[in-house]
């Protein structure tokens, strides 16, 4: 057993039991966190509610609130290496990739810290019929107010980054929050609470609880004193959250599953497209909701692209979070590895062909080889379901009309990438693809100022940009007669 991660004693007391946390690279126990029960959830929500009602955060001058967020950003910057190691041990990312996760999370926090004090409503002076039958003059204005106590639930892929996508705008808006990380990857979320407390955030404004989704997460989403839930995870769990939120008609932001297409036309720059498409389905070992794992390639270049993707997949070094030079890591758990292998085996049994990979690696850790699959059919699980593993399916197509129908033939609509040198085609496909974000000649691009919002069953609402902070605000209209 490797050294157990230390948890703040105040945090460690928040549950009736503990949950073991394992390093997916080595299968070793690296820590234990509280299994928060209903009483722990109630206590966390009560702390958040008290701070919100007393205004210890939302009523502070904007400069003071912004200063807290900027101080937290500086602490994160100073501790990037420490946080990267912790993130990597939780989910198997190599340290360089984990450091990148911390850096882009820092960018998100800096972006939303800049919004504090810049959120405002509108005003107007009008003359209107009054209730007594004569004209009255009104000075009208709207004000944007924090929605209240928010429940934030994050997945095990990129947990520090996804946590910041929710925590930063929620705090910038003036909300109080309860954050629940995935039970597999809780440590950087717990550190995040410590960082904000060190930066001067009043106690109780951000509360991190750990536990299983079906118990702790369910208690949080159904809690009658939570005004909004923001959830990132599977579409299936998203449906359960919708049902739970109906009790008090909570506001919801849902960033759910994806089965995103990449489309490679015969005019594409293949020196750029092949590695771009390769990382589009292999980034994070495929554990990214925006991964473009359905790869449509025009027939004239199909064989060339398949061969190129096979070479690319074979040359990427795979290893654990502490192994120098590794680019691809393990899956988060044995359960997830078996799910990925099960979908692959179902496809092969139905006639799909594995061009490279397709097996678990013969070593410690939950590794699956980088895999390229051909000869699929549209009804296979490989094409219909979100795999969340290092698997890309390469599918030939003839013309634009054919590939547009195929690309949109999914219940998801999170992202899409398009590879072409024709600007007109790029604009046309950007209009016609039913996806919340479209990348042209790139993959997995992101910016804090640009929103992400799922179409179809990929989610409700959006994150990042103005949409991100707007999701934690509510509008009040005020009329003043004069």
Which features characterize this protein?
Aldehyde Dehydrogenase, Chain A, domain 1, 22% strand, seven-stranded mixed β-sheet, Aldehyde Dehydrogenase, Chain A, domain 2, single chain, alpha/beta, globular, 482 residues
Structure notes:
By secondary structure, this protein is α/β, with parallel strands linked by helices. It folds into two domains: 9-256 and 458-481, Aldehyde Dehydrogenase, Chain A, domain 1 (3-Layer(aba) Sandwich); 261-447, Aldehyde Dehydrogenase, Chain A, domain 2, CATH 3.40.309. It contains 16 helices and 20 strands. It has helices at 9-12, 38-54, 62-78, 80-91, 95-113, 159-173, 187-199, 213-222, 235-245, 270-282, 302-315, 334-349, 381-384, 400-408, 423-432, 465-470, and strands at 17-23, 28-35, 123-129, 135-146, 149-153, 176-180, 206-208, 228-232, 251-255, 261-264, 294-298, 353-356, 371-374, 391-397, 412-413, 415-419, 437-440, 455-456, 459-460, 473-481. The strands form five sheets. The chain has a seven-stranded mixed sheet with strand order 12-13-14-11-10-16-17, with helices on both faces. The longest helix is centred in the N-terminal third of the chain and has 19 residues, at 95-113. The N and C termini lie far apart (73 Å).
């Amino acid at each position: 057993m490797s050294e157990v991660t230390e948890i703040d004693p105040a945090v460690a007391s928040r549950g009736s039991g503990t949950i073991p946390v394992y390093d997916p690279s080595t299968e070793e126990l690296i820590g234990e966190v509280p299994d928060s029960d209903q009483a722990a959830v109630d206590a966390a929500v009560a702390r958040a509610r008290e701070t919100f009602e007393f205004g210890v955060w939302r009523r502070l001058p904007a400069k003071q609130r912004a200063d807290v967020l900027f101080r937290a950003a500086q602490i994160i910057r100073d501790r990037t290496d420490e946080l990267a190691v912790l993130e990597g041990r939780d989910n198997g990312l190599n340290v360089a990739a984990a450091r990148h996760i911390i850096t882009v999370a820092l960018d998100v926090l800096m972006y939303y810290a800049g919004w504090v004090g810049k959120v405002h409503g509108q005003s107007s002076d009008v003359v209107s019929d009054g209730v007594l039958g004569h004209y009255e003059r009104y000075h009208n204005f709207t004000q944007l107010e924090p929605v209240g106590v928010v429940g934030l639930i994050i997945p095990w892929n990129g947990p520090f980054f996804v946590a910041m996508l929710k925590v930063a705008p929620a705090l910038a808006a003036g909300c109080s929050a309860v954050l629940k990380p995935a039970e597999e990857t809780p440590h950087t979320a717990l550190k995040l609470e410590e960082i904000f407390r060190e930066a001067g955030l009043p106690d109780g404004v951000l509360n991190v609880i750990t536990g299983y989704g079906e118990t702790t997460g369910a208690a949080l989403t159904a809690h009658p004193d939570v005004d909004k839930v923001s959830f990132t995870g599977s579409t299936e769990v998203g449906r359960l959250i919708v049902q739970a939120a109906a009790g008090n008609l909570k506001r919801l932001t849902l960033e759910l599953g994806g089965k995103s297409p990449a489309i490679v036309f015969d005019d594409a720059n293949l020196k750029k497209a092949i590695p771009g498409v390769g990382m589009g389905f292999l980034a994070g070992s495929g554990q990214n909701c925006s991964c473009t794992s359905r790869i449509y390639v025009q027939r004239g270049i199909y064989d060339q692209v398949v061969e190129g993707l096979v070479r690319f997949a074979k040359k990427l070094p795979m290893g654990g979070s502490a192994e120098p030079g590794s680019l691809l890591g393990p899956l988060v758990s044995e359960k997830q590895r078996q799910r990925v292998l099960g979908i692959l085996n179902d496809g092969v049994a139905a006639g799909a062909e594995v061009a490279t990979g397709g097996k678990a690696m013969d070593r410690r850790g939950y590794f699956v080889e980088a895999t390229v699959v051909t000869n699929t059919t549209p009804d296979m699980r490989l094409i219909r379901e979100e795999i969340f593993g290092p698997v890309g399916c390469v599918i030939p197509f003839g013309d634009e009309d054919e590939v547009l129908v195929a690309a949109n033939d999914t219940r998801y609509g999170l992202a899409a990438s398009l590879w072409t040198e024709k600007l007109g085609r790029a604009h046309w496909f950007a209009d016609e693809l039913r996806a919340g974000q479209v990348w042209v000649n790139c993959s997995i691009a992101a910016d804090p100022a640009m929103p992400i919002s799922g179409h179809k069953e990929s989610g409700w609402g959006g994150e990042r940009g103005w949409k991100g902070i707007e999701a934690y605000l509510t509008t009040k209209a005020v009329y003043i007669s004069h």
